[in-house]
Every structure is written in structure tokens, then in C-alpha cells.
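Section 4.2 – Deliverable D4.2 (structural model, holo form)

The reporting period included a commitment to supply a predicted holo structure for the target in complex with zinc ion. Inputs used:
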Amino acid sequence: MKQSLLLVIVILLALATPVQAQTYDPLHPPNTFRNPDNPEYWKNRPPYEGYFQQDVHYEIQATIDEKTNVITGSMELIYWNNSPDELEFVYFHLYQNAFQPGSYYDDLQKNNDVNPSYGPYEAQKLGTAIAKLRVNQKEVKTELDNTILKVYLPNKLASGESAKFNIDFKTYFDFGSVRRRMKVFYSWGNNLENGYKHYDGVHWYPRISVYDSKFGWTTDQHLGHEFYGDFGTYDVELTFASNYVVEATGFLQNRDTVLPEELRAKLDIKNFADKPWNEAPSVITPYDAKATKTWKYHAENVHDFAFTADPTYRIGEVEWNGIKAISMAQEMHASKWQNAASFTADVVKVYSEDFGKYVYHKIIVADARDGMEYPMITLDGGKDPGYRGLLAHEVGHNWFFGQVGNNETYRAFMDEGFTQFLTTWALEKIDGIYRVKGKIKSNYVKRFAKPEKVRERRLYRTYITDAAKNSNTTLNTHSDAYNGALRHGGGYRQVYYKTAAMLYNLEYVLGEELFLNAMKNYFNEWKICHPYPMDFRNSVIHFTKVDLNWFFDQWLETSKSIDYGVQSIRKTENKDEYVIKFEREAGMQMPIDFNVTTKSGSIYKYHIPNTWFTKKIDAKVLPKWHGWDKLHPTYEATITVPDKIKDVVIDPSRRMADANMLNNSRKFPLSVNFDSKLPRTTDWTKYEVFARPDFWYNSYDGVKSGVHAHGSYLNYRHVFAADLWFNTGFGQGTFDSTVNVNAFDQLSLRFEYHTSLDKFSKGSNLYLAAKTVDGLEAYKIGFDKKDASGNNRLFL
Ligand SMILES: [Zn+2]
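Output (C-alpha cells):
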């Protein structure tokens, strides 16, 4: 009796205590992505009311066979329909089907005059092949169109419900000529007995298409550009031959089994600091064709899963603020990858502090002959210091792509351009404003190579070169719609450079502090969510409370460019008073910062707002100049300075991306240099002249000595080449007996000039030429025009 009473009490107590829900733990199973205590989950912090995104949980077991180069996978996907809509079908991406004869991408390449060659699997149209597919344990109807698989659901999937997909698949690595990202190559040797195969597993499993809040289904065929995926959880087991060293998205669950301390110590990159570059790797785990290891990963708050594996990988690790920065370098390259982990930790620190805290526990940089980003893992290449820009870029993608998961196929500027901006930002913060170069051996190079500014090289030069030629692009364009070109062609490169320039120009417009706070706010609002361009605009506008529609319209929706100039400076009758007249020669409007330098060397700073907003600036603020296109093309600034004016310079910070810098100051921005013939970055802020001494010989004049000079603005406007020779008569007629020895010209001259008249008529040039050489005189003046293809010229 007593005992049974006790039992009843125990049972009652057990029932009264609610079952403890699993607390949020992104590092271990079970899946806690959808938990109310996951601070990153969209439902716990929706960007706006009515917003939704779908949730996924992938569990994949995959074996990578190093003899056949085939991944055999079995996948279970739980898919939650959080949309208000009932779904009758879903779509999956089979990205690897792009790389085969007859694919959409194959057709696009051929129409771009590229004829790909295919490896044996590719030739058999083996990319990702589905062996079995069930939904909620039922066979279903599917429809395959190259890289998109449509799957009809057995029952309609109601709002708030989930469906379970079980898919068996094989994905084939190959060695064809098309750059696939998912790849195999021999990192050492050329067979498994005395060499090593390297694998990058990316876009390798059937990935469900995004059904998003803005546009519903996204069914873009893969044409070599960008990607898009739903956020959620991945539990992935990867089985490799036992000598492989593996890294992947997620937290490694069975470290003690696959990477015990003893093995990890042997693989440490520091052990190979002095190993000569490209020398044969040592054997740490001998290859055994029958022995395998299974690497188990768990990742939450991610929209993709990638891995990289190579028996020659050696590991570096540096921690910042609880985040592990891990480098994976092939042993042959380890000597020049020693700082990769610490550099990466510095990059993570800069981005976390300036743009928003990194939400994952690790970031990998891997020596993988690539330049590509995946959640928590980047595939890179090269060596220090050349690789710094690449590492900073791919790591930067973990902010815009990895955490802020925009639809990059639809609008690539939102991740590529933002990341290009971050790249420059991090390099400047870590290494300073000049590009860090490797050791220079040649004294000539040391003497004459000019230091290159990171921002010019990585961003302004490329943007301005296109803008100055009026071949600017409209950023709000689909990644596959840049004139049907491949890769970065057809203006697609401006997705990177114009966007990055736009962000520096937004900083210029808003001021540093407000800009950075607005960027942080956007990151925090949209991390682990799917923003579109309008969401970015709205986020910045609502945060800053500044009317910036003009700014985003002109940068994102037009191909206009910026051209402000100093037209004149006039002294008035009043004491110390001057009127500076500015003009706007291109369509875009911007506020104007300008400096006035006086004869005595004093500098006076001014700011002309273009709207009601005035940024925080240490300068005298003048009345606003509101205008664009034909509205208020000029502006007169009345200023008082107690000295004569020596120069007036628009935007000394060089952030305003003015596509014609020749009129941005009172003094002509001339730069005269020794013509060293070394590779260099064109200076978009100056008219550049290069000169060198020159020696020549001809039968008529004999030995000639003189100068050669050439110059231009961006190799495009006011392009000239000139030679002036003093002729000695020495050696006259040596090779030509008809020459009248003693009759020669004291001076020879050659001058050629051309400049673009694109402004008046696209593709047209004015040219002039004059020469008195070899006793002959010739003069030319002309005009030519190319047709739209650029192949045919019309001469006048
Ligand atoms: Zn990128």
C-alpha cells in the first residue's frame, strides 16, 4: 500500500514537470534551428511583419570513392512550408548537370565561341543522378530539365506543415575543361600509389530551390554564375579513404575518432614552416585502399554545405573572440601559408567589429586552387602575400552570401559587390592603404615600381575605366542577363566594382559613422534571411532617416556616371571674397566636399550638400546644390579666404567616383613619370605622362638620341605619343650607299594624338599625327568611328 502510493506520487510528479525542451545548441544534434531560443532564427527576429522563409534540415550520408571519383549519397530532407501558400510541387537544383553536352550552359558557351571538352562522366551526361526519390515514403512523379528537377508532392503541402524527402543519388567528379567548382585534381603525382587526389565537394547534393517571400519559386538554370538556398540545419557524414584530411561546413562531431590530438599535432602547419615550396609531401597516414574514416558534421543557421579533402592538407589555427580561423594548406605550399590562419582571424575581427558579429564558430581558408565561398568554408589558392585579397574576399562572403543570404542568382551585386567592398576595407585596415607585395629581388624594380593603393587597384580603377568610357552597367540586373556573356564578361564585372564604388560613395554621402552604423543595422536585420535590393535600400533609408532614393536610383537603376568640375574662380569686389563656379557635366548628382589651398599653404574645407541632409563633417557647410541632369548644372560658391587662392580640389578623400578627374581641381592633375615599362595601375585621378631617353639609328640621320614620351587619361582620352631625336649623322649610309652623307636633319620629330569622342558619338575618335623623320614630312588629321560590334571602322 505504502509502496504503491509512493509510485503514484512519483508518476504524478513526473507528469507535472514539463518535458525539458532541447536548448539551442548550434554545434550538436538535434536540430535546434527552429527553437524559440535561437537568436538567429528568422521567426524570432523577422525583418518585417508578414515576412517568411522556408526551413530545411538535411541529413546526408555520403561516400567519396577515390578510385572512381563518385560520391554515393543518401539524403533525408525535412522541409517546412512557412509560407501562407499551399504547395503542390517543389523544385531541386542539380547544379552539376550544367557541365555536360547539351546543357543550357553548354549552349551558352558555344554561343560565346567557347567549345568545352568533357571528361568521361560529363560526356555521358553524368552530373548528379537521382537513383531513388520518395516524399513522405511515397513514390512521386518528377520532371527533369537539365539542372532543375520538379517534384510533384503526393499530397498538397499546407502552410505550416512539413514534408520528408528521401533521395539516393550519385554525383560525379570529372576532369573536363569547364570550370566546375566541384572538382578533383591530383595535388601531388598522378596516381593513387605515389600521388594524392584532392576533392572539393560543392553544389554536390540535390538542393531544394528557394520559395521566398518576395518571388515564390526560383527556378534559374545554372549558367556558371551564382547560387541561392534555404537556411536550416545540415547533419552530414562524409566517408573517405583513411589518409584524407577533411574540412567542411559545421562542427566536427567525432574529432577524437577522425582527428585525435596525436594526429592533429603531426598535421600542424608549423611543422612544415621550412619545407621548400613544391617539394614532395611526407606520408603521415599511409594510403590503404580498404581503410576508411567517416567525418561527421553538424551545422545550423546555414544555407549550404561544402567540403574539401586532401591527404596533403596541413592545419593552422588561430582563435579570435571564440571563433576559430583555420587554414588548410597542402604540405607542398605550407611554408607560404604560415600566416593564413592569423590573417583570416584579423579579417574576421575587422568584419565583425565594423559590419556585424560573425555567428558561426569557425571559418576555413583552404588551399584548393579556387576562389569560392561556402558557409564557414572558403576555397582559395596562391600564397602569401598575393593571396591576402582572395582570402579577405572569400571570407567576406560569409557576411554577404553566408549570413545575409540574398538571392545572388537574381541580383549578384548584393553579395559580390558588397564583398568586393569588404575586401578593400579589410586590406586597408590590416595592411594599410598600399598593396603588400612579395620580396622584390631586382634593383630596377625596387627603384622604379610605384606603390599601388589597394582601393585603386581593387576597385576604382576598374569602375572608373568603364564609367569614363560610358560603358557603365545597371546593377539591378539578373546575374545571367549581362549581355549573355560568360563569367565576368558583358559588364558583369561591374557587379563587383561598381557596387563597391557605390558603397564608398554612400560612405562619402552619409559620413563614416552613420554609414557604418547603417551597414551594421542592415546586417543585423537581414542575417540568416533573404533580402532583395529594395530591402537593402529600405533598411538604410529607415535607419538613417535620410532621403536616399536619388542615390540608390542613380547607382542601381541607371548607367549614369559622375562628373563634377571646377569651372572658374573669380575675386569679387569684397575683401577676401571669391566666387568659385562648379559645373556638373554628367547625369549623376552628389554632394561636394572641396578644399581651397592658399598661396601661403593654408587649407580651407567646404561642403555643399545636395539634399536637406548634411553629413557630420569638419568643414564649412555652404547652401545646398540640388540638381541633376539639366536641373541646376552649375553652382556658385561664395567663400572668404584671407589670401590668394592657389588651388581648389573637389573631394580630396578620392571617394567620389568621378569619371573625369581632369577638371576636379584648379591645377591640371598632371603626373610625370619615368617610363620604366614595369606593370602598373593606371591612376584614375591624374593625367599621366611617361618619358624615357631613346636611342635610334637610321641610314639617313645616323645615330639619333632623344626622348620618347607618351601620356593619356586612363589610356582613353588625350592619348599622345611623341619622339624627339637629335641626329648625329654618325654611321650615316652604313647600310645604304645612296644616302647623301652630311645631308641630314638636325632634329626628327614624331607626334601622334587621339582622343575619344564617345561623349558626342559612341565609338568615335579624333586623331592627329605629324612627323619629320628620315627626311620625310607627313601630317594627318582624322576622325573614325567603330560600329556597335567594335570590329568595323569608318574613316573620314
Ligand atoms: Zn566573390
